Amino acid sequence: MVIDASDPYDRVDANRVTQQVRERLAAQSQATHFVLLRPNDDDAYEPIEATAGCVGPELPGSSAYLMSHADQSAYRKGREEALAMVEKAAQALLKAGPLRTSPLLETTIAISKRHDLRTAANVTLIYYSDMEQNSASLSVYGQDGVQQTLSAENLEEVSLRNARVEVNRIVRRSHLGLGQAKRLQDMWTTWFTRSEATTEWSK
């Protein structure tokens, strides 16, 4: 999960994102390994990991039947502690802004190298961001900025094969008009598709 704090979140958006992060992990039907990170202002290719771990599924009746009450209690306590850790880390990331830059492309490239997605299964990249790429080398701002970012010669190709991308576009403030915002979504969808990932944008 990538939480972009380049612009400050108000309390409503921060609470909504925190709740969505927690609910997403809590709803998984099997043990889920997770990493929460944010883009790095100081080094675009070294995103900052806030926390990582594993959250188990809610204890089903069939499994509970085979466990003692003490084991059931220990499992539920451990699961709740993991979810609370996720919630706390998400809140910390959401308070990290404002930042000078928003190197989302570089962050994604770094993720693809740090975690070899080609050999993984059931990988989902989840973004909470306005997706307005803005770094020293690539920015969507300026004349024809969106299109230039997509076609930039130094836009590195990556493989996100086996990955599913979910984008929750949260706009606190934006310098892009409606037409540019549509081109921004098309830009990212094209890049993710070119990187062999499937993409879904939240409504």
Brief account:
This protein is of the alpha/beta class and 203 residues long.
Outline, from the CA principal axes?
globular
Q: How many angstroms does the end-to-end distance come to?
A: 18 Å
How big is the Rg? 18 Å
Task: Sketch the topology as an H/E string, one letter per element.
Answer: EHEEHHHEHEHE
How many β-strand runs?
Answer: 6
Number of helical elements: 6
Helix content: 40-55%
Q: Describe the biggest sheet?
A: 4 strands, parallel
Poorly predicted segments: none
* Spatial strand arrangement across the major sheet: 1-4-5-6
Structure classification: alpha/beta
Assess the beta-strand content as a share of residues: 15-25%
Write the layout of secondary structure elements.
Blueprint: E1 2-3, H1 11-26, E2 32-38, E3 48-55, H2 61-65, H3 69-94, H4 104-114, E4 123-129, H5 145-151, E5 163-169, H6 178-194, E6 198-201
Describe what this molecule looks like in 3D.
The chain starts with a strand and ends with a strand. It is of the alpha/beta class. The chain has helices at 11-26, 61-65, 69-94, 104-114, 145-151, 178-194, and strands at 2-3, 32-38, 48-55, 123-129, 163-169, 198-201. It is built from 6 helices and 6 strands. The mean pLDDT is 87. The protein has a 4-stranded parallel beta sheet with strand order 1-4-5-6.
